[in-house]
Amino acid sequence: MSRKPRRIPFLRLAWRNTHRNTRRTLLTVSAVTVAVAALTFGLSYITGILGNVVDTYTRTESGHVRIRRSGYTERERLLPVHINVQDLATLLTTIRANPNVEAALPRIRAAALVDGAGSNRPGLLLGIDLEGEDGYFNPSAMVDEGRLPQAGRAEALIGRGFAEQIGVGVTDSITVLGQTAYRSLSGLTLEVVGLAVSGLAHLDNSLLVVPLDQAQELTDLPNAATEILVFANDVAIAKQLAQALDRELNPPSQSNLEILSWLDQSSLIRMLNTVRPLLGVVFGLLLVMAGLIIVNTMLMTVMERTQEFGMQAALGMRRSDIFALILSEGMVIGLLGGLAGAALGTAVAVWLESVVIDVAAAMRSMELPFQGTIYPDWRLVYTVSSAVIGVFTAGVAAIYPAWRAVRMTPAEALRV
Fold this sequence. Notes:
Blueprint: H1 10-17, H2 22-62, E1 65-69, H3 88-96, E2 101-115, E3 120-128, E4 143-146, E5 155-159, H4 160-166, E6 173-179, E7 185-196, H5 201-204, E8 207-211, H6 212-219, E9 227-232, H7 238-249, E10 257-261, H8 266-304, H9 306-314, H10 319-352, E11 357-358, H11 360-363, E12 373-374, H12 380-397, H13 399-407, H14 410-415
Parallel strand pairs: 3-8, 5-7
Antiparallel strand pairs: 1-9, 1-10, 2-3, 2-6, 2-9, 4-7, 5-8, 6-7, 11-12
Helix pairs in contact: 1-10, 2-8, 2-10, 2-12, 8-12, 8-13, 10-12, 10-13
């Protein structure tokens, strides 16, 4: 009667073998731990950064949905006030009636020449509904000195950097020259009632915020604006909301509005598509470094235990079993490092979610839609996927040392 071959407990043997050289095992586990912790935290951190970019961009530039007159986007750099959205009051009423709309905010963007105390500079004039924009463009949070302008009054909030360039401060008067919707020159005299610091260098050095009615007067746009920013109850439905508004506001017989979700506004998407591959390269290099350390360590293990493997082969252990044993040791090391790294990375990410990471000084000179504080955005899937990737990387890294071990014949191994 033939005896059924006994199954070899590879994982138990692998666990036992990791204790044979504790220092070497700790070194290898530490490499995996660092790589997995960096991956877990890095994914959380990058998600926080991208969330910051999207939030800042949608609040200051695009909204969740942006409505403009057809043809404006092609000339956007020129800030053409003659291409504008008419019948503003009716449009706002229709948009706000949609149950998925949280806010609909008209804005006027216009190029302006601002004259201060004997010096003048070109700037960006932004006419907004100052009360309605609270929580969106959020001008009240930008006030560094003074106060917000009031609707119906010839007042302005000016970027601190811009104010320094033209030599004005709070209570000073400025003259603003701009172009009307009919392409003629127009001017306003405004009192500077506040200085703004947004954390975005390109705004702080050029921005002039005025009440919407003052911008309408300067540009001769009564009941009109250059754009309407729509904010959805949930950013995830922005694309569907844009499509719904397009059907409602752009009937086939009168299709003169450009209605785009933030996902369809190419500048932001182009930037995000540039960042993501770079992040993949960074994390890939971390895993490759961890894998190389595992390969090196496992190769040393194989060389030191050559006679042991030769003896096992001479006693009848199959090459496939030796291969599986070494591979199991790599997987055990990967499991230990993966779990430790996932726990460490998660702990750091969760802790930093309640700690402000202030990068304002580093980002101030960059023309990016990015606020000065970051919070990691940890998610369970990052912890689980990082741990799995760590185990997988360790397993793959152990394949070559295992292959080297099984190539030797028992006689060659025992002679070493």
